[in-house]
Design a protein that fits this description.
Length: about 150
């Protein structure tokens, strides 16, 4: 599902798993890194702090993913800020605005509905806004399947 807006990406997926298991996959940094494709070994997500680790996707291992943890509402909402599609190792993204990524969990008759919203693209510099939006949009399609597959493991 995409809202059609150029400022936000929205996805949702129904997960056949208990709320606690879905929540752990999101909030436990090492588990998150396992399905998301970032090495976050030995780290914890804490509101107000930054988590960072090397991307583990083939071809992107030289890049570091940095997430400023914004909000943690137990078993309901996990939110962080980051620089979208920050893949040019020679670029300094530190002065750019970030986007906000929010994962919300909702009860559903058949499991847990995971809603994802990444917003704030209209604040990203025009020179890279469209590409960041396009790449993250496709990336979230893949990540929704990654968390589903991760949760299906025994």
């Amino acid at each position: 599902m995409n809202s059609g807006s150029s400022d936000r990406i929205e996805r949702q997926i129904l997960l056949a798993a208990p709320r606690g298991k879905v929540w752990r996959a999101l909030i436990d940094a090492e588990s998150f890194g396992d399905w998301f494709g970032v090495n976050l070994k030995g780290q914890c997500f804490v509101a107000g702090e930054t988590a960072r680790g090397h991307i583990t996707y083939p071809g992107y291992e030289h890049l570091v993913c940095e997430m400023q943890i914004e909000r943690i509402e137990p078993e309901h909402l996990f939110a962080y800020r980051w620089h979208p599609y920050a893949v040019d190792p020679s670029a300094d993204y530190s002065r750019e605005p970030t986007t906000l990524v929010e994962f919300a969990l909702e009860e559903h008759a058949d499991g847990i509905l995971l809603r994802l919203v990444e917003s704030g693209f209209e604040r990203i510099p025009l020179a890279r806004r469209a590409e960041a939006f396009r790449m993250n949009s496709g990336g979230w399609d893949e990540q929704m399947q990654n968390i589903r597959n991760y949760l299906a493991r025994p």
